[in-house]
Amino acid sequence: MNSAWLQRTILRAASFLAPGDQRAEWLEEWRSELWYVPRRGATRFCLGAFRDALWLRRNNLSPAKPIQACLESPLGCLAFLAACAAVSSLIVALLPAPRRGPPSWHMGIRELPEGCMATLMLSCLLFPAIRMAMGRAAADPHPVPWTGRLRLGIFLGLKIALVQPILLCGLVLGFLIGPVAPFAPQVAMSAIWTFTIRWVFADQQRRCPVCLRLTNDPIRIGTPSETFLEWYGSESMCSRGHGLLQISGMPASYSEQAQWLRLGDSWSGLFRSGLPSSEAAGVRPR
Fold first, then answer.
1. Residues 6 or more apart from 10 whose CB is under 8 A from it?
2. Taking burial as the number of CB atoms within 10 A of a residue's CB, which of 220, 223, 244, 286 is the most buried?
3. pLDDT of 107-153, one tens digit each?
4. 284 three-class SS
5. Distance from the first to the final alpha carbon of the chain
6. What is the C-alpha radius of gyration for the chain, rounded to an integer number of angstroms?
7. 74 and 187 share a domain?
8. Same structural domain for residues 170 and 254?
């Protein structure tokens, strides 16, 4: 009885890692498979549910969430980052000075630009490493005009500038909790810095080079067990019909670099402004 309770508890805990819209079905599937597993290896079998739930969340292609919908357009993305930057700046200005360390760490509104410049210099040290770890930018057989490259560069620069108050807020919070947990600030700041900068470049990689909108309606192509001769990854499309973005799902694929495939004018009839690409094409989303 105790072992059965432990196994159900493990599966229930692992289910929180699975996507919410697939959690119930995932849990029922694992419980049904547990009936056919011998008792000796049942607990070990249940421990594999954590890995399966993480894989399912990573490869989840469910419709975009409200936050992702707000970030789809470039103006919406910048507005969201500007709101987060304003809230972070307000938090930094209202936080008390740390008990340990120089009192200059207490920043007011006037000191915020200097603090953001300091975080920008620290961020520049991580840019090359994170950019190399993420791979090269999407290859385009038809080069983008210089005006398009200029817009991409300006958009990337604005995102980098707007995340600096967020990083500064995390830095100040790290100094405040330093006396309580000595190693927590270093670990937290490394995670926040890496995650934020990686998100900036990942968001840039998933955007259409023409309209700067996030590509949507991703579909999975291929299988991870057949990457020797076939391509495996995800393909998403621009909601305005400018092209398709193919991103490799595994480093073992023959093409690790993302590919951007432009669509001709003959495809414009399948896309109507203001509607998702699946609805514009007359396809009901599942």
1. 43, 46, 47, 49
2. 244
3. 667 777 888 888 888 888 877 766 665 555 555 556 667 787 888 88
4. coil
5. 40
6. 23
7. yes
8. no
